[in-house]
Design goal:
This is DUF1772 domain-containing protein. Keywords: Membrane, Transmembrane, Transmembrane helix. It comes from Pseudonocardia alni subsp. carboxydivorans. The chain is an all-alpha fold. Helix 1 runs antiparallel to helix 2 and helix 1 runs antiparallel to helix 4. The chain is elongated and about 55 Å long. It is built from four helices and no strands. The relative contact order is 0.21.
C-alpha cells in the first residue's frame, strides 16, 4: 500500500503544481496572444499540456484504483479517491471552455476558465494534503 500511496501523492502534488502554474502564468498569458495567432497557439498549447498533465493523471488514477483495492476500508483512501474524482469532474468544464476559447473574441470565456482552473488547483492541492497524510499513515 505504501508504494501506491507514494505514487498517488507524487502524482497529485505534480498535478497541483501544474494547475497553479497554469493559473498564475499560462492562462493569463492567453490574453496576450494576437487574435490571428490564437488557433495555432492554442493547438500547440493543447498538445504540449497533454504531454505534461497526462502521465501524472494516469499515475494518479492507477494508484488511486490500487489503493481502493488494497485498502478499501481506509477512510483516507476514500478521501483521496473523491479528490481524484473531483479533479476529473472539474476538468470536464475546462475542456469544454478550451474547445471554444478565443480570448480576443470572448474574454469572458478566459475568466471562466481561470475560475474553473482555480477550483481544480484547490482540489488537487487538497488532494495533495490527503496524499501526504495517507502516505504517512501507510508507514512512510
Amino acid at each position: 500500500m505504501l508504494i501506491a500511496a507514494l505514487v498517488q501523492t507524487v502524482a497529485t502534488v505534480l498535478l497541483a503544481g501544474i494547475a497553479w502554474t497554469v493559473q498564475v502564468v499560462v492562462y493569463p498569458a492567453f490574453a496576450l496572444v494576437p487574435a490571428g495567432s490564437w488557433a495555432r497557439y492554442h493547438a500547440a498549447h493543447s498538445r504540449a499540456i497533454t504531454l505534461v498533465v497526462g502521465p501524472p493523471w494516469v499515475a494518479q488514477g492507477l494508484a488511486t484504483a490500487a489503493l481502493l483495492v488494497l485498502a478499501p476500508g481506509e477512510p483516507l483512501v476514500w478521501v483521496a479517491a473523491v479528490a481524484a474524482a473531483a479533479g476529473v469532474a472539474v476538468t470536464l468544464p475546462a475542456v469544454s471552455l478550451h474547445g471554444r476559447l478565443d480570448p480576443a473574441a470572448h474574454p469572458g470565456d478566459l475568466r471562466r476558465l481561470l475560475r474553473v482552473n482555480l477550483v481544480r488547483a484547490l482540489v488537487w492541492s487538497a488532494g495533495s494534503v490527503v496524499g501526504v497524510l495517507l502516505t504517512t499513515a501507510s508507514g512512510a
